[in-house]
Specification:
The chain contains 7 helices and 2 strands, in the order ααααββααα. It is mainly alpha-helical. The protein has a two-stranded antiparallel sheet. A hairpin with a 2-residue loop joins β1 and β2. The longest helix has 30 residues. The protein starts with a helix and ends in a 22-residue tail after the last helix.
């Protein structure tokens, strides 16, 4: 069964990495996959975070502050725990001197880390989940962006489709855990919530002296 699933994974990888490869994706996907490591990308991401914090109102500031521990936790969960537990070689790695997958289109450096899950997918889906909770009208755009970044990891040749799918699920779950935790905090300390210290109105007939 495991061999069958791996064969399907490799077949999907070959299709997304090789068959669908074209001059446009050969430019767009490496750009997407390396965005967080380039100077331009870091300036863009920091600028977006500052815009969220400064111009996003109370909801934006809350989301911006929650993003910091969320990304730290999701990245460490992926890189320091799950990857080291699964220890799956990347498709571009050599296993006993033999390529894990032959004739791949490697568009970026392979990297020395393990394959499952894709940390790009984990982090982006964690962020998309949190931000979609705070800004529901942006949910499609946020998850669309996260999906594009995750797919770029297959397109450039460094992750299997199951790495991306698993990373998306882990990231979304991590995001929801943070959301659930934040809801509990707001219930305990309403002043931190979007409505501030507002109290529900008294029911008719139950006021003082009645």
């Amino acid at each position: 069964m495991i061999d069958i699933l791996h064969s399907i994974d490799v077949a999907l990888f070959r299709f997304l990495n090789g068959t669908l490869g074209n001059p446009v994706t050969d430019v767009v996907m490496p750009f997407m996959t390396d965005l967080n490591t380039t100077l331009f990308g870091r300036i863009l991401l920091v600028g977006a975070w500052l815009l969220l914090f400064v111009r996003g109102g109370r909801t934006g500031r809350t989301a911006a502050l929650l993003l910091i521990p969320l990304i730290v936790v999701s990245d460490q969960l992926s890189s320091s725990f799950v990857k080291k537990f699964v220890m799956r070689p990347r498709p571009c790695h050599l296993v006993d001197g033999v390529p894990a997958v032959d004739q791949i289109r490697l568009l970026v450096g392979c990297g020395g880390g393990y394959s499952f899950p894709s940390s790009h997918a984990v982090n982006n889906f964690a962020a998309a989940t949190l931000l979609s909770f705070q800004f529901p009208k942006w949910a499609r755009a946020l998850f669309g962006w996260a999906t594009l970044v995750a797919l770029s990891r297959i397109s450039v040749g460094v992750h299997y489709p199951s790495d991306v799918l698993g990373g998306a699920l882990i990231g979304a779950l991590t995001g929801w855990i943070f959301i659930a935790g934040w809801k509990r905090v707001v219930l305990r300390y309403p002043v931190l919530g979007p409505a501030g210290t507002a109290q529900p109105p008294e029911s008719p007939g139950k006021g003082p002296g009645r």
